[in-house]
Amino acid sequence: MNYSTFTSSMTVHWWLGHVLRMDDSRIPRQATQWELRGYKRKLGRLRKNWMDIIRRDLKDVDITWDEAEELATDRAEWRRRVAQCTHLDAG
């Protein structure tokens, strides 16, 4: 994994913590629960979106979505977990 991929991975995980700490009335927070049914990506589009990547990363470290929401409330713990995840990616 190169440095730019490593830092963008950290940014994605930090951003998730930020979004999960938002009030439920905020659109970015609501967007984490949206699911498009019957939608097919057009030719040439990425196969995975941001939420697909987040779900995969959470699964890789055995954290459920509910656990992630709870962890995000504690910023220090969230940062520690993000650092732990990104070090696993770099190895």
Explain how this protein is built:
It is a single chain. With 91 residues, the chain is mainly alpha-helical. The chain has one domain (3-24, 47-90). It is 64% helix and 0% strand. It has five helices and no strands. Residues 1-7 have low confidence and may be disordered.
Task: Based on the model shown, name its key terms.
91 residues; mainly alpha; 64% helix; disordered N terminus
Indicate the mean pLDDT: 76
Radius of gyration: 14 Å
- Approximate helicity band: 55-70%
Give the low-pLDDT segments. Answer: 1-7
Annotation field: number of helices: 5
CA distance, first residue to last residue? 8 Å
Structural class based on helices, strands and sheet pairing: mainly alpha
How is the main sheet built?
A: none
The sequence of SSEs as H and E is: HHHHH
Shape: globular
Structural domains: how many:
1
How many strand elements? 0
- As a percent range, the share of strand residues is under 5%
Helix and strand topology:
Elements: H1 3-20, H2 27-31, H3 50-60, H4 65-72, H5 75-90
Helix pairs in contact: 1-4, 1-5
In short, what is this structure?
By secondary structure, the protein is mainly α.
